[in-house]
Structures are given as structure tokens and as C-alpha cells.
Amino acid sequence: MNIHQVIAFVEHSKKCKDFKKAHEHYYLVHCFCTIENKQQSPWQIGYYSRETERIVSFTAGKEVLQGEEDETFTKQGHVPALDAGKIKVSLEDALAKAEDFRQRSYNAESVTKTIIILQTIDDVPVWNVTLVTHAFSLLNVRVHAGSGKVISTIADSVLNLGQRT
Questions:
Q1: CA of 152: how far to CAs of 39, 59, 76, in Å?
Q2: Inter-residue contact 32 to 117 (CB < 8 Å)
Q3: Domain layout of the chain by residue ranges
Q4: Which tens digit of pLDDT belongs to each residue from 127-139?
Q5: For 113-135, b where at least 16 C-beta lie within 10 A, e where not — what string?
């Protein structure tokens, strides 16, 4: 399934319809999954409410499962909506761009896990792909989900995460 089909699968499910009927102020903000050992996890489709400042995710497995409402941790004051109509680039294309970056700049590093978030950053729909390597490097590639242009590439170490402010 492509990401549009996944979103539609979730939004047409009884669980999501019932939730959105009771919580009309929630809106689509992200799609999340991981890849590990060549196995992709089920997509988690997230919805956010400015009123409650909470997020709820629906997991798109064989059936749609609703998660608990959680707090959000954002520096923007709110989580921006994800406009699915602006998504033109496939997950496969975004992953290919991330792999191209790894091969060009870090070809000795092998990937143990891939973390994928489709979200809005600075009013742009973005495939935010993070490759975690055996050497504990984090290779992050952000791809414009509308144009396919690589917006940014960053390499860091997992060991530096606790040192950030």
C-alpha cells in the first residue's frame, strides 16, 4: 500500500471514524513506521488537537487499532497539519535518496534500523528518514514530499543525543 492508501485505510475504519466523530478538532499530523531486518512495521497515523495538545495514533495492521492519547512535545506551540494532497513522492523514492546519501558519504556504515516520519516541517510536507547504523551513527535525510528534492542531510552519533540542549 502506498501512503495515500494507508491513510485512507485508517480514515475509513470504524475506529477512526468513531473517534473523529467524537473529536472533530483532531487533524492529521504524521505517518510513522520503522524498518528493521528488512521488515517494515505497521504504519502509525497520528492525529493532533490544538485544544487538548494531545495526539492519538492509529496503527494500520490487518485491522486498525487506536492508541492512547499522548502529550506532544513540540517547540512550535502546536503540531502542524499534514496535507495528504501535497504528498507526491513515494516512500520508496525517499528511502532511495537516503540510501544514496549513505552510499556517497558513509558507505562503510551498514544500517540496522530505519525510522520514517512523514510530517510537516516549515509548512512543507517532509519525508524525515533516519538511518541508524552499526557504528551508532544517525544519518538523517529530509526529502520534500511534494517535489522529491533533498532538503537536508545530517550525520550525528547516537552517543551525542544526551548532550543536546
A1: 26, 28, 20
A2: yes
A3: 3-82, 85-163
A4: 999 999 998 899 9
A5: ebbbbbbbeeebbbbbbbbbbee
Q: Is the separation of the CB atoms in 56 and 25 below 8 Å? A: no
- For the domain spanning 85-163, the CATH number is 3.10.450.40
Q: What is the pLDDT of residues 92-122, one digit of tens each?
A: 999 999 999 999 999 999 999 999 999 999 9
Look up residue 39 and give its amino acid: Q
- pTM: predicted TM-score of the whole model, two decimal places: 0.92
The b-or-e profile of 50-87 (16+ CB within 10 A means b, else e) is eeeebbbbbbbeeebebeeeeeeeeeeeebbbbebeeb
- Rounded to whole angstroms, the Cα distance separating 27 from 46 reads 8
Angle (deg, nearest 10), helices 14-22 and 3-11: 70
Instruction: Compute the CA torsion angle 34, 126, 148, 103 (nearest 10 deg).
Output: -50
Report residue 114 as a C-alpha cell.
530505519
Angstrom CA distances, 55 to 21, 69, 99, 129, 135, stand at 16, 5, 31, 21, 33
